[in-house]
Write a structure and sequence with these properties.
The protein is built from 17 helices and eleven strands. With 449 residues, it is α+β, with helices and mostly antiparallel strands. α7 runs antiparallel to α12. Strands 1-2-3-9-6-4 form a six-stranded mixed sheet. The radius of gyration is 22 Å and the shape is globular. The protein has helices at residues 26-31, 33-38, 62-70, 80-89, 98-108, 117-133, 143-159, 161-165, 171-187, 199-225, 232-238, 249-280, 282-295, 310-322, 354-358, 374-377, 399-416, and strands spanning 13-15, 46-51, 54-59, 75-76, 140-142, 329-333, 337-339, 342-344, 349-352, 417-421, 441-446. It binds protoporphyrin IX containing FE.
Length: 449
């Protein structure tokens, strides 16, 4: 049991108010999900919801979130949404149960080792510069779509560096279809809706086949030459467990899908929200431009620049606080358990929400305010308080990768461009388990010729 950080002696449990007969709290959760969840801590530390026939607890206290995530065997990944994700992407790192997780994590960790980061960052920098090279002064772009393309291109390049450079049919086009398709499928209410012969399902099936075929060819090519190409695929191929066994081709394919599912949308959403926040806060944007003009003078950002870009890094941390892309996550009690002195029967669904924690006024003063400078004094928040990358054994394996990508992209783009969303209604979040903005357009203004 981890040492309690908060001096709370008794954690409260309560039923959330306002449940309707039969439907319970499902309409409130569907109608205004973020506002509804952010209000729950007012009712208790463990708040019970009725979602139709399903009973779930929302864990609202950071100490309890910390305890739950520290015990990944008792509180494992599970539940209906995860079952659907497993059907589509298999049992890769992000979706596998605790029983096989340790082995997978140990094998995959070297791919994201700090020493690998400068190599990944060099590829990221090329892709970011390439993606923005086609922009023109006065262009109007769909920001979330552009950031999704950018993040897909970066991930594709870091997974399959040699392939992408060789100019073969770009993998990232199939990846784009796959990541969009997977996100859509997770939202489909009917269990078999993904088997219907709709154009979207056919496109997704074709893209998955293309990706499988490409991965198969690349694996064969890598295995034949045995060359380390300094990409993620090379590290997956080199991975062995304690018995010296490597990953099979099918397992490597599952991990590729796992990285796509977990890595593309999250980073793209972070970048999109950052542009809206910077546009709404011209004083911060002015200071960002000053930092970038001093350090970069218009050139693209590189890995070596990161220590000289502290404000850019704080902007990323603050964006992830206000808009953590996986804003609500779940666990299932695998056995009769106890949390904060309350009984949790086996099979109970437990939800935790980085969004809820990040918007608690007792943890983050003036929580709705975009204030990157709060990170000058809040360098290490208490465990369970700031959780955009999760915690414990299932903490994001790509946290440094995603943060590096976001800092390099914001620095390179903002050094040359100002992104101004079209005037009108504020940008609203999309529905779903990922906190991403709805499509919005913005005008590009060149800062440096
Ligand atoms: C800003 C970007 C990102 C955010 C906010 C983010 C967030 C998260 C969170 C919250 C989790 C934990 C989920 C849970 O506990 O249920 C997670 C897990 C994971 N993420 Fe990320 N992620 C980001 C980028 C990436 C990238 C770039 C990759 C890979 C290229 C990646 C790969 C993964 C994987 C494989 C897992 C599962 C880890 C495990 O269970 O051992 N993520 N991510």
């Amino acid at each position: 049991m981890p040492t309690p950080f908060f001096p709370t002696t008794r954690f409260t449990a309560a039923l959330a108010p306002g449940g309707l007969p039969l439907l319970g709290h499902a309409p409130a959760l569907l109608h205004r999900p973020h506002e509804f969840v952010a209000r729950l801590p007012a009712h208790g530390d463990l708040v019970r919801l009725r979602l139709g026939p399903l009973r779930a607890y929302v864990v609202c206290h950071p100490e309890l979130v910390h305890r739950m995530l520290a015990d990944d065997h008792t509180f494992d990944k599970g539940g209906p949404l995860l079952a659907k994700a497993r059907e589509v992407v298999g049992n890769g790192l992000a979706t596998c149960p605790a029983a096989v997780h340790r082995r997978q994590r140990r094998m995959l960790q070297p791919a994201f080792h700090r020493e690998r980061l400068p190599g990944h960052a060099a590829l990221m920098a090329e892709e970011i510069a390439g993606a923005t090279a086609r922009w023109h002064d006065g262009d109007v772009i769909d920001v979330p779509a552009a950031m999704h393309r950018l993040s897909t291109a970066v991930t594709a390049r870091c997974l399959f560096a040699a392939h992408e450079r060789a100019g073969s049919p770009p993998v990232h086009r199939s990846m784009d279809v796959v990541t969009h398709g997977l996100a859509r499928r997770l939202l489909l209410p009917l269990p078999d809706a993904d088997r219907l012969p709709t154009p979207g399902n056919r496109r997704l099936r074709r893209a998955r086949q293309d990706l499988r075929e490409t991965t198969r060819r690349l694996i064969a090519d890598h295995r034949a030459t045995g060359t380390d190409r300094h990409d993620l695929l090379s590290t997956l191929l080199a991975a062995t467990d304690e018995d010296g066994l490597g990953l099979s081709d099918a397992e490597i394919h599952e991990q590729v899908l796992s990285f796509l599912l977990a890595g593309v949308e999250t980073t793209a959403a972070t970048l999109s929200w950052a542009w809206t926040l910077l546009a709404a806060n011209p004083a911060v944007r002015g200071r960002l431009h000053a930092e970038l003009d001093t350090v970069l003078d218009g050139r693209p950002a590189r890995h070596g620049d990161l220590p000289a870009l502290p404000l850019t890094a704080r902007i990323v941390s603050e964006t992830l606080r206000l808009y953590p892309p996986p804003w609500i996550l779940s666990r299932t009690a695998t056995t009769d358990a106890e949390l904060g002195g309350h009984r949790v029967p086996a099979g109970t669904t437990l939800l935790f929400s980085p969004y809820l924690l990040h918007r608690r006024a007792d943890l983050f003063p003036r929580p709705h305010r975009f204030d990157p400078d709060r990170w000058l004094t809040t360098a290490s928040p208490a465990p369970g308080t700031y959780t955009p990358f999760g915690l414990g054994a299932r903490r994001c394996i790509g946290d440094d990768f995603g943060t590096t990508e976001a800092v390099l992209a914001i620095a390179t783009i903002a050094a040359r461009w100002t992104i101004t969303p079209a005037p009108g209604r504020p940008v609203r979040p999309r529905r779903g388990s990922s906190l991403a903005p709805r499509p919005f357009t913005a005008r590009l203004t060149r800062r440096i010729r």
